[in-house]
Amino acid sequence: MTPETVLTLVRQALEVALVVAAPMLGAALVTGLVVGVLQAATQVNEMTLSFIPKLLALFATLAVGGPWMLATLVDFTRRLLTDLPQLVG
Protein backbone atom coordinates (compact mmCIF):
# COMPACT_ATOMS: atom_id res chain seq x y z
CA MET A 1 0.00 0.00 0.00
CA THR A 2 1.45 3.33 -1.05
CA PRO A 3 1.54 6.34 1.24
CA GLU A 4 -0.81 8.19 -1.14
CA THR A 5 -3.39 5.43 -0.76
CA VAL A 6 -3.15 5.55 3.00
CA LEU A 7 -3.56 9.34 2.98
CA THR A 8 -6.57 9.04 0.68
CA LEU A 9 -8.20 6.51 3.01
CA VAL A 10 -7.53 8.68 6.05
CA ARG A 11 -8.93 11.74 4.26
CA GLN A 12 -12.08 9.86 3.24
CA ALA A 13 -12.54 8.52 6.77
CA LEU A 14 -12.21 12.01 8.25
CA GLU A 15 -14.66 13.42 5.70
CA VAL A 16 -17.23 10.75 6.53
CA ALA A 17 -16.74 11.34 10.26
CA LEU A 18 -17.23 15.09 9.84
CA VAL A 19 -20.31 14.68 7.65
CA VAL A 20 -21.90 12.21 10.07
CA ALA A 21 -21.07 14.25 13.18
CA ALA A 22 -22.05 17.66 11.77
CA PRO A 23 -25.84 17.42 12.34
CA MET A 24 -25.39 16.34 15.95
CA LEU A 25 -22.82 19.05 16.65
CA GLY A 26 -24.96 21.66 14.92
CA ALA A 27 -28.03 20.73 16.95
CA ALA A 28 -26.06 20.88 20.21
CA LEU A 29 -24.54 24.23 19.21
CA VAL A 30 -27.84 25.86 18.29
CA THR A 31 -29.61 24.48 21.36
CA GLY A 32 -26.81 25.63 23.65
CA LEU A 33 -26.87 29.09 22.10
CA VAL A 34 -30.65 29.44 22.49
CA VAL A 35 -30.59 28.18 26.08
CA GLY A 36 -27.65 30.45 26.88
CA VAL A 37 -29.47 33.50 25.54
CA LEU A 38 -32.59 32.57 27.51
CA GLN A 39 -30.55 32.05 30.68
CA ALA A 40 -28.82 35.39 30.19
CA ALA A 41 -32.13 37.13 29.60
CA THR A 42 -33.77 35.62 32.67
CA GLN A 43 -30.58 35.63 34.78
CA VAL A 44 -31.08 31.98 35.67
CA ASN A 45 -27.62 30.42 35.68
CA GLU A 46 -28.27 26.75 36.31
CA MET A 47 -26.03 24.27 34.49
CA THR A 48 -28.62 21.50 34.45
CA LEU A 49 -31.07 23.69 32.52
CA SER A 50 -28.82 23.62 29.46
CA PHE A 51 -28.17 19.88 29.65
CA ILE A 52 -31.72 18.59 29.19
CA PRO A 53 -32.58 20.66 26.06
CA LYS A 54 -29.28 19.66 24.46
CA LEU A 55 -29.97 16.02 25.22
CA LEU A 56 -33.47 16.26 23.75
CA ALA A 57 -32.14 18.03 20.65
CA LEU A 58 -29.50 15.34 20.15
CA PHE A 59 -32.09 12.56 20.49
CA ALA A 60 -34.37 14.33 18.00
CA THR A 61 -31.50 14.82 15.55
CA LEU A 62 -30.52 11.20 15.91
CA ALA A 63 -34.10 10.06 15.37
CA VAL A 64 -34.47 12.17 12.22
CA GLY A 65 -30.98 11.81 10.75
CA GLY A 66 -29.99 8.44 12.20
CA PRO A 67 -30.92 6.34 9.17
CA TRP A 68 -28.97 8.66 6.89
CA MET A 69 -25.96 8.61 9.23
CA LEU A 70 -26.03 4.82 9.40
CA ALA A 71 -26.37 4.52 5.61
CA THR A 72 -23.38 6.85 5.16
CA LEU A 73 -21.23 4.82 7.55
CA VAL A 74 -22.32 1.49 6.03
CA ASP A 75 -21.59 2.80 2.51
CA PHE A 76 -18.09 3.91 3.51
CA THR A 77 -17.41 0.59 5.27
CA ARG A 78 -18.70 -1.37 2.27
CA ARG A 79 -16.46 0.61 -0.11
CA LEU A 80 -13.49 0.12 2.21
CA LEU A 81 -14.00 -3.64 2.50
CA THR A 82 -14.68 -4.01 -1.24
CA ASP A 83 -11.47 -2.16 -2.13
CA LEU A 84 -9.41 -3.99 0.48
CA PRO A 85 -8.01 -6.67 -1.88
CA GLN A 86 -6.72 -4.00 -4.30
CA LEU A 87 -5.24 -2.04 -1.41
CA VAL A 88 -3.36 -4.98 0.06
CA GLY A 89 -2.13 -6.68 -3.07
Quick recap of the structure?
The chain has 89 residues and is an all-alpha fold.
3D structure, described in words:
With 89 residues, the protein is mainly α. Helices cover 92% and strands 0% of the residues. It contains 2 helices and no strands. It has helices at residues 3-42, 47-88. Helix 1 runs antiparallel to helix 2 (47-88). The protein is elongated and about 65 Å long. The model has no long low-confidence stretch (mean pLDDT 92).
State the major sheet.
none
According to DSSP, the number of beta strands is: 0
Question: What's the SSE pattern?
Answer: HH
The percent range for strand residues is under 5%
Q: What keywords describe this structure?
A:
89 residues, 2 helices, mainly alpha
Topology, element by element:
Layout lengths: L2 H40 L4 H42 L1
Helix pairs in contact: 1-2
